[in-house]
Amino acid sequence: MSSESIKLLTENSVYESASLETPTLIIPRKYLFYQCMSFENVPRTLRNNLLLQRVRQLSPFNRPATWQVSDNNAAQVWFWDADRVDRIRDQQTLPALNLVPEVMLYPPLDNGLRVQPCIEGWELQYWSGRVLRHSRWFAAKPNFRDHADFVRVCGATDDEAWCEGEAHLLSKPWNEKAFWSRESLQSEFIAPRLVLGLFLAWFCLQLGMALGVQIKKAFLAEAVANKSETLADLVDQRDATLQQQEFNQAVSALVQSPSQLHLLAQVSTCLSAFDFTILSWQYQSGQTAVLLQQENLDTRALIEACNQNPTFTDVRAEPGATPSQTRLLFTLQDDASGASDVQ
Question: Which of 24, 109, 246, 249 would disulfide-bridge 127, Cβ 3.0–4.6 Å?
């Protein structure tokens, strides 16, 4: 990495000899905000959205950019002003390389308090369980009073020892894992490509198997063709027999069942004692619906008259679209309705 990669937002010759694995634009600690967020009772599917919401609430910027490191139920989040970084990068005519917070290039602690020298200024850190619980940046090296205030805020014990970090930068962010690690395989960058590679391998395997099947089919095609001619006559005879059987069943059902005209005659017989006008007649799935037009029609007497006809198992009356309309529903016996459906 060249010195220009270091000088995105600072001028400090001490770090010009740093060497990173990939070209990187480092954001100094003075431009970063930090927050350790707990998601102990939050489902994993909701954590990213909740994290973005919290960053928007904490950030004073219109367009914050973030770098996060997730560890079980805790998320270490650094955020900065993306517009300001873009402006400074444009002023220095720097390429659009990866942005990495400066803190990610210092080795983490398992537990304890640390005074970390930065590209500009100093940072007080409190680590617990390899998670940065609290962080505060100072333009000048913090004094004893600053240490005491930090310990009081972060909740560390007074007798916990301080250590001073080195200014040497790592060759890559400390949260980067090997490719075959669980964290890498589950990352949004690696996982889709890994799935795509597995799919291509599976597709090539299926293609090879399909070609083998086609070759085998070519050898069997001639033997199948010889037998097909013999079976074709048998299949034609079977189909003709089945068609004749279906035709006979349909004819038998038509002969044994009452026709639509017969049903209409039965309905007319039931309603012959009443004065009305039939507006429509419908039949579907063993049920006949008749729409009648008559003011103050005695539906109760009409239903009693219809129930005396053995052709129907049930008769119901429903109001029509207007007060003068009545809709009668006649339910046929099972044998009659099944036959009528055939018609």
Answer: 109
Closest to 124 (Cα-Cα) out of 76, 162, 173 = 162
Encode 232-243 in three state secondary structure.
Answer: HHHHHHHHHHHH
Q: Kindly report, residue by residue over 158-187, the tens digit of the pLDDT.
A: 788 899 998 888 888 888 865 555 655 555
CB 157 within 8 A of CB 128: no
How far is the C-alpha of 295 from the C-alpha of 118, rounded, in Å?
96
The one-letter code for the residue type at 207 is L
Residues sharing a CB contact under 8 Å with residue 301, sequence separation 6 or more, in sequence order: 274
pLDDT confidence of residue 134 = 94
Nearby residues of 70 by Cβ (< 8 Å), 6 or more positions away: 47, 76
CB-neighbour burial class of residue 147 (10 A; exposed 0-12, middle 13-18, buried 19+):
middle
What is the identity of the amino acid at 260? Q
Q: How far is the C-alpha of 249 from the C-alpha of 216, rounded, in Å?
A: 45
CATH 3.30.1360.100 at 260-342, yes or no = yes
pLDDT over 70 for what percent of the chain?
A: 84
118 in helix, strand or coil? coil
Q: Give the model's pLDDT for residue 326.
A: 85
